[in-house]
Amino acid sequence: MAVGSKDLATTELDAMTDEALAAELDKAKQELFNLRFQSATGQLESHGRLKAVRRDIARIYTILRERELGIRTAPSVSE
């Protein structure tokens, strides 16, 4: 079982558009910053969350890079 957020499974990330992935990446980076700050001040209760957020960020970067290389395709926007 992969470590990370349960709501950020690869299949769900693959269904997102590039803009949605960028927004999710910004959100994850902000959470990582907050977790690091809590860790530095001794207020962090869940150290496993740091690892999960880092893996979520890596997962998002991987999907974006695979789309750039043409390995994955972005979902088509139908209106």
TrEMBL record:
InterPro entries noted in UniProt: Ribosomal_protein_uL29, Ribosomal_uL29, Ribosomal_uL29_CS, Ribosomal_uL29_sf
Q: Is the keyword Nucleotide-binding in the record?
A: no
For this record, an example GO cellular component is: ribosome
Q: Which UniProt keywords apply?
A: Ribonucleoprotein, Ribosomal protein
Q: Which Pfam families match?
A: Ribosomal_L29
Classification via SUPFAM superfamilies: Ribosomal protein L29 (L29p) (SSF46561)
User: Which PROSITE patterns does the record cross-reference, listed alphabetically?
Assistant: RIBOSOMAL_L29
Q: Which family does it belong to?
A: Belongs to the universal ribosomal protein uL29 family.
- Protein name (database record): Large ribosomal subunit protein uL29
The gene from which this protein is expressed is: rpmC
